[in-house]
From TrEMBL:
InterPro entries: Fe-S_Maturation_MIP18, FSCA_dom_sf, MIP18-like. GO terms for molecular function: methyltransferase activity. SUPFAM superfamilies: Fe-S cluster assembly (FSCA) domain-like. It holds the Pfam family FeS_assembly_P. This is DNA methyltransferase.
Amino acid sequence: MAVSEEMQESILGALENVIDPELGIDIVNLGLVYKVDLDEEGTCTVTMTLTSMGCPLGPVIVDQVNTALSELPEIKKVDVNIVWQPVWNKDMMSRYAKMALGIR
C-alpha cells in the first residue's frame, strides 16, 4: 500500500526528532532514512542505514525511531530495517545538514 503524501510527511516529520547522537543532526537531514511504508494494520516500516557499519549507537537510534513514531496515532507497530545498500555517504545529506556540519 502506498503511503499518502500527507502521512509520509507526518512520518518524516516525526523522524526529524531523532537526532544522531554523534553528529547532532536528525536522521532525515543526514539522509539515513531511505524509505517509509505504512500498511493497513498500522505497521510502519522504516528502511534506513547508519553512518557506519560499526555504529555503536545503532540500537539507541532504533529506539528513538520507535519512540518518535509511536506518537503518531495511525502507527500501531514500528519495524526498523537497517540496510547497508546503498552505502551512506555525505552526499546523501541535505543542504541544511552539510551547512550545520561545515561540509561542502
